[in-house]
Prior knowledge:
The chain folds into two domains: about 5-125, N-terminal domain of MutM-like DNA repair proteins (Alpha-Beta Barrel); about 140-250, Helicase, Ruva Protein, domain 3, CATH 1.10.8.50. Helices cover about 25% and strands about 20% of the residues. It contains six helices and eleven strands. Strand 7 and strand 8 (about 100-105) form a beta hairpin. The structure holds a DNA duplex.
Amino acid sequence: MPELPEVESVRRKLSRWTTGARLVSAVASDRRIVRGSLSAFAKLEGRTFRSFERRGKWLRIGFGENQYLYSHLGMTGDWELEGEERFERARFEIVKKKKKNVLRYTDPRRWGVLALAGEDFPPWAALGPDPLHDGIDIDRLEKKLSVRAKKSVKEVIMEQKVLAGIGNIQAIESLWKAHIHPKRKAASIEHEEVVALVKAIEWSIARTLADLELGDAGKDNPFKIYGNAGRPCPRCKTILQRFELGGRTTTACATCQPLAKVKPSRTKPSAKRAKTSAPQRRRSRR
DNA sequence: ACCAATGTTGACAG
DNA sequence: ACTGTCAACATTGG
Ligand SMILES: [Zn+2]
């Protein structure tokens, strides 16, 4: 469930469900997920859900008096009202307008995090600007990219202090939209490309979020190229490639997202041929 | 039965 | 000190 759009969607439903609700009981006993003391959760009992914020992939629920419940969904975390007990990792009984409900944090893989803290929480403080909440500062991004001569543009935009909330899917989709190959060195991205990338990130986040807001009506794979390696590029019909980059499976179109510059410059010697990627390897347990 | 999965972090080698 | 590469985490669903 976890990139910026998914987390934003969770934030919205939490706000819908629990604004003004009173927390009757809070039980979180999974040591892998809960950071800090388990008993601290009892301190929240009796308090009221007041605010719902998101920064990147982090959520925080405010209970007043500088008490926040921070939540990171890891790879498979989600919040549900009622629903199945199967993947429940934390349970919150709430009362809103006399109605009692169970709010669950579910997380099969248990890579998520729950933490109680005040407004100063290091993982939250460490996040860069959130594209949806703060917008993207083109000059700042250009600077961040220009300094990274060795890393690929995809890896850099996925760093949470560069842009909070961009994950594998959003990176793949936006780079495709901006016609930028994910393996390009971050520092090689030119000004106009940064401008295009910023637009593309906004485009991808907006359409993913819109799709999520449709609820179950949404299709299985609403993405343009993520998860579609081996199928034709929606723009040019070239078969989409799949490769690993920075330990993450990546999809790209070799035609729309050239690795080597294709600028038709008859005066200059021909551009170097793009390196052909090694025959598909497989591995990764992410 | 096998493989891949929307994330993050820490170890290690160069 | 920096950089890149792996592995690990834990579990499910196709
Ligand atoms: Zn294409």
